[in-house]
Amino acid sequence: MEAMSVREDPQAQPVRPTSEDPVAAAGSELIGGPAGRRALLGTGWWTPVRIVAIVAIGMFALGMAQKLPCYDGGWFYGATAQYTHACYSDIPHLYNGRGFAIDLVPYFDRIPDSVSGGMQYLEYPVLTGLFMEVASWMTPHGGSIQDREQIYWLVNAGMLMVCTAVIAVCVARTHRRRPWDALLVALAPAFALTATINWDLFAVALTAAALLMWSRSRPLAAGVLLGLATAAKLYPGLLLGPLLLLCLRAGRLRAFWTAAGGALAAWLVVNLPVMVSTQGGLHIRDGWKTFYTFSQERPVDFGSLWLIISQRTGNPLEDVNTYGTVLMVLACVGVAALALCAPRRPRLAQLSFLIVAAFVLTNKVYSPQYVLWLIPLAALARPRWRDFLVWQACEVMYFLGIWMYLAYTGSGDQHRGLPAEGYQLAIAVHLLGTLYLCALIVRDALVPERDPVRQDGSDDPGGGVLDRAPDAFVLGEARRASRYEGAALVDWGVHRE
C-alpha cells in the first residue's frame, strides 16, 4: 500500500505533458493516446531521459539526411544549388577556407589570402576553434579536397550529434519532475534543420550542462561550464546577468560570486594561452582578437531588424553598433525590472530566455543556426507545445527564406528565389515569432499562476539554491508579498497541498 501511494503521489512522478497540454494530448493519438492515470511511464530501461535522447539523435539524423543534396555535390559544383536545396553548411567551406586543409594552427598561423578570401585568422572563439581543429585531426588528408571536405563535415556532424545527446539529457534532467519537456528540444524542426550549419551546438551543450549543474545547487561547476561555453560562443556569458539579479533578490549572492568566479577562471584558462603573446614584447595576439574585431566591424548583415531598415531606406546604418547597444541596454533594464519587481521571483529559465532573445533581436546579424541558442531555454521557460510550435514555424519560415534569398541574389539575371521584399517578410516573421514567445514568458512572470511549470505548486525547479528561497531584496509591489520571510512562497501557492 505504501508503494502504491508513492506511485500515485503527484509530487513523486514525472509530469505528463498529455495531462496538462492539449496539443501534446492530441499529438499523442498518433502513438495510442494519452497515458492513463496509473500508467508507469519511463520504467525499466526506457526512462524519459533515454527516450528523449534517442528521439533527439533520430531527429539529428534526419537533419543530416536533409543535407544530402549538398553532400552529393551542392557544396562544390553549383553556386546556388546549396541554397535552392536549403542544405548550406559553413563546415565544409571553412575546412579549406580557414586553413585546416593545409594544417594551419588557428590563431597562430596567418591564413593566405588565396585560401581565405581576405580573412587573416579564424574568426571564432578559442574553444570553438579547438573543436574545429580536433575534427580536422580526424579527417584524412588524402584524396581530393571535395572528398576531404565531405569527411570533415561527417566528422563534425558526429561530434555535434554527441552535443545533441548532451543537450537532450541535460534539459530532461534540469527540471526533475518534467523530463518530458525536453521532447520540445528533441522534436524541434528548427533544431534538426540548423544543427550542422555551424558549430553552435558545442556552446549550447556546455550551456545546458551549466544550467543542469546550477539546478543541482552546484554553482562552481555551473560557473566553470558557463565559462567554457562563453569561450566557445559569446552568448552564454549573458546568463550571468539573470543569475546576479535572481541571487540578489533571493539573498544568495555567495552562490552567484562562486559561479561568476568559476566562469571567469575557466574562460581565462582557455583563452590566456592563445590571447597573450610574448614575441616582441607582451601583447594581445592578432589571431585571438579577430573574433572580437570582426564582430565589432562587420556591417549590417543577414536576418536582422537593421537589414530591413537598411534595405528599405537605402541607409547603410554605419552607427548600427550604437543603435544595437542602446536597444540591448534598454532590454537589460527591462529584464532587471522584471526580476526585481515581479510579484514572485521569476524562474532562471525565463530570464535566461529573455536576455538571450534580446541579444538575438537587437544584434546586427541573425544566422539561422542562432535559433539553437534559444530552443533549450524555451523548453525550460515555457513548456507548452502550441506556443513552441508557433515559434518554430516562424523559424522554419526564416530558415527557408534566407536560402531562397541567397539563391535569388546568386542566380544572376535569372532571379530564381526570393527577392529582397520577400526576405524582409521572412525576417519580420522571425522577429515577431520570437517576440511572441517573449511576451508569453513575461506574462507568466507577472502572473505566476499562468506559468505552466508552477501550476503544480513548484517554485523554480531549475533554480538550484534559488528554488523556494524567500525574497531578500525586492522593488515595487513585490515588497508586499515578501514582507515576512517565506511569505511570497506561501501567498503564491508554492506550499499548497
UniProtKB/TrEMBL annotation:
<feature type="transmembrane region" description="Helical">
    <location>
        <begin position="184"/>
        <end position="214"/>
    </location>
</feature>
<keyword id="KW-1133">Transmembrane helix</keyword>
<keyword id="KW-1003">Cell membrane</keyword>
<feature type="transmembrane region" description="Helical">
    <location>
        <begin position="45"/>
        <end position="65"/>
    </location>
</feature>
<keyword id="KW-0472">Membrane</keyword>
<feature type="transmembrane region" description="Helical">
    <location>
        <begin position="322"/>
        <end position="341"/>
    </location>
</feature>
<dbReference type="InterPro" id="IPR018584">
    <property type="entry name" value="GT87"/>
</dbReference>
<dbReference type="GO" id="GO:0005886">
    <property type="term" value="C:plasma membrane"/>
</dbReference>
<feature type="transmembrane region" description="Helical">
    <location>
        <begin position="388"/>
        <end position="408"/>
    </location>
</feature>
<feature type="transmembrane region" description="Helical">
    <location>
        <begin position="420"/>
        <end position="442"/>
    </location>
</feature>
<keyword id="KW-0808">Transferase</keyword>
<dbReference type="InterPro" id="IPR016570">
    <property type="entry name" value="UCP010361"/>
</dbReference>
<dbReference type="GO" id="GO:0016758">
    <property type="term" value="F:hexosyltransferase activity"/>
</dbReference>
<feature type="compositionally biased region" description="Basic and acidic residues">
    <location>
        <begin position="1"/>
        <end position="10"/>
    </location>
</feature>
<dbReference type="Pfam" id="PF09594">
    <property type="entry name" value="GT87"/>
</dbReference>
<comment type="similarity">
    <text>Belongs to the glycosyltransferase 87 family.</text>
</comment>
<feature type="transmembrane region" description="Helical">
    <location>
        <begin position="255"/>
        <end position="276"/>
    </location>
</feature>
<feature type="transmembrane region" description="Helical">
    <location>
        <begin position="151"/>
        <end position="172"/>
    </location>
</feature>
<keyword id="KW-0812">Transmembrane</keyword>
<feature type="region of interest" description="Disordered">
    <location>
        <begin position="1"/>
        <end position="23"/>
    </location>
</feature>
<protein>
    <recommendedName>
        <fullName>DUF2029 domain-containing protein</fullName>
    </recommendedName>
</protein>
<feature type="transmembrane region" description="Helical">
    <location>
        <begin position="220"/>
        <end position="248"/>
    </location>
</feature>
